[in-house]
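User: I've been going back and forth on whether these two constructs are worth ordering. Before I decide, could you fold them both?

Assistant: Sure. I'll take them in the order you sent them. The first construct and its structure tokens:
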Amino acid sequence: MKVSLFQGILYGVFIIAALIGLFVFATYTSKNTGSNAVGPVIIWGTLPKESITTALNTLGQTQVGLKGVSYQEKSAATLPTDLAAAIATGEAPDLVLASQEELHTLAKFIVPISAATLPANTFESTFVGEGSVLAAPEGGYYGIPFLIDPLVLFANRSILSSDGIARPPSTWEALTGLVPTVAQLTPARQVTRGLIGLGTYDNVHNARGILSTIFLQTNVPISTHTTGGALTANLGNAAASGGQSPGLAVLTFYTQFADPSKVSYTWNASLPDSQRMFLAGNLALYLGYASEARFMTTANPNLNFGVSPVPQPATAATKNAYGLLYSLMTPRGAKNASGALQAATILINATSQATVAADTGLAPATLAQLAVRPSDPIAAVAYAEALYAHGWLSPMPVSTDALFSSMITNVIIGRLSLQAALVATEQAFTALLQQ
């Protein structure tokens, strides 16, 4: 890959800034992160064991400090209870690797990194913007950003090209306009080929991330801290200047794709899971995480697909996409807390970030590494989106899914109005967040 003079200078600035930013942190944890002083470090994480272990083995050949680091995969659904039991019995791991979707529940078991160890200006100049979700109310950060898995748009090139569509839509407005061209319906309005899986919840793969993306793109934070530090839900229920509230705009837009009376109708609750529909070649577009690209290739080697950034609102001044931010956190009761922080420092250096990103299919969480554009086209999309990815502190995924599913289902079957469904869901979220 050829690098221009400007790019070289830019990369240099990022790298120097990152090195300066990490100096305090690295010095605190170890004067020699490549030494054997790290000791044995056990990581419990929700990412696949094979890819993380492969990366650790590769890195351990050149970075001595990682030789004693081992990884155990844990279910995201049971991680909090597993961790609580391990702490109670004195068998806690040294690091926990999980996304922000588990953070709110895990927080009571995590020892935050103090602001004296990792100052805010160091953190912000080193890591992606989504890292702000790790800020602890009492100061400092719950963990160190490690990897990010942004939501992206998968496109069936064969379907789009056959319908005269040169490239995937970059805006939601353009996407909606493609429904009459791409979707195929029977006279009874049954969908035989869809444009995209949107409108329902339970059979839309990644519906939690998709809805989160649209809310965040509409400047709805979903959850926020009050001045007193309590976490409360905010689904954009309040309208500005007498107009429609942003939350209602989100629900109206999302559910239209499952409304048979709308020209945008392309999906319904009787269809298979959207990922399965896409793999079978019966869905033109699919919203999934960047890490799913390898699964797609393996599951259907004959599928001619491409990956592009998630669509944005046409009038948006800035880009926004939902991303799963995986961070390294030290739990209470860790037997080797010092070594854990040293290992985490090694895992965010340039070599480690590039290696782990390549082995997992995720993007690095450090700005310095994201400044180096990868040659792989899918990785290039993931790296670009990681820079403007965002997230929110939520209840555990199973609880979030239950509330979102109820909200969407109540709207599309007519049980509740858009307003009533939004208000009820916001109240239920707040109750869960404050438990």
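The second construct, handled the same way:
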Amino acid sequence: MEHADKDTLKWVFRDHWDAFKAASPRYNTEYHNGVVAKMLDCGDPEKMGFVQYRCLYCGETRRIAFSCKSSFCLSCAKPYTDRWVGFVGRRLLPGVVYRHIVLTVPDFLRVWFYRNPGLLSPLMRAGAACVRDVFSRTAGVELDIGSIVVLQTAGRPGNYNPHLHILLTGGGLNPEGGWTPVSYIPFELVHRKWQYYLLTLLREEVADRAVERAIDQAWRGYPRGFVAFVDKGKVPPGGEGLARYLAKYVVSPPISVRRIEGYDGRSVSYWYHDHKTGQVEHATLPVLKFIGRMVQHILPKGFQRIRYYGLHGNTRYAQARQTLATVVPASAPPDPQGFRVLPRKPFRQLFFESFGRDPLLCPRCKSPMELERIVHPKYGIIKDYFETFFTELTDDEPAGRGELPGRGPLDDAERVVQIPLPFLQARGVG
């Protein structure tokens, strides 16, 4: 079996996507084909477009293709996740302690969500309503809390396992306008409340009599409620600590590049950490089953897997931030790394951290390369920086537009190479 690399998933889909669609016509849709095609084209300059850099000293050029920026693409998964981590970090409320709760769906109920993707939005709303109910009952007063709900559909082996990760304020605004902290969350109450909200959702949203049998089975088989996990400690309040914490849950792909161990044309091998045993487990699946495990996690078009409720709601966030500034002391959080938002890393830094070299140093003479043009796959050249440069440079020269003194017009390949270095230095370039 060949060792896997970042392109292994692409080879799996190139070799077997058509065969999989024939075996599973549910996924033979324009939308699914588009998602897969986008992943396969990622990094192809002809199909995705590119930016081109040029060395002003020796004329060497380098093209860097645009990525697809999809969570389904293993190559783009990390920067995609980092962008969401940075966004969520900026949405935290200063001075507020946050808690983390995971709400799960029992095995025998997951099939209803697999067959009905439209249930995923109500699932997220039910999770937000559940935690608010739990906090209000625990505090003995109606609380207005803030929550960030993240939907995950993949279990660690890659199976279909819809569950919610909820980052919520460790308290809420009471009817008098003050802040009521909630430092203790009774696990038993969370389990029973989540059972009630989840089964009520299914009864109200699914028009199938068979669901009633599943609901009855759930009430009888789970007298203590459904499984939910509540972190015992406090969630890191900000900065790098929070970024590392959220990165485990936010828009991560069903499997990462480093977990794929091999592909031989017929099967795919990968590893995962098993929740129950705590050990590393290895799995080898027929290639069509592996593809099925991947594409079942493609969410409906336009679906937002991260949603904000209560104090974090889009229409309320700015006002809630102002209100909390007067009722919650914005003291420095206990995180030793402090409450700060990490800036998004530029492409050059990310490339250097991944590959150990600067992508914008000329491979021939090691001089810094300059951005020359941006090319869109549909609209062609949308910006040519050297064209602008030469237009501005030569408008007042006797040779005229696009020419250098004593020389004829330059074509694309010659324009930079033929420019004498003193000429550039005299104009502040080079």
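Notes on the second construct follow. The first helix runs from residue 8 to 23. Confidence is low (pLDDT under 50) at residues 331-343, 393-427.
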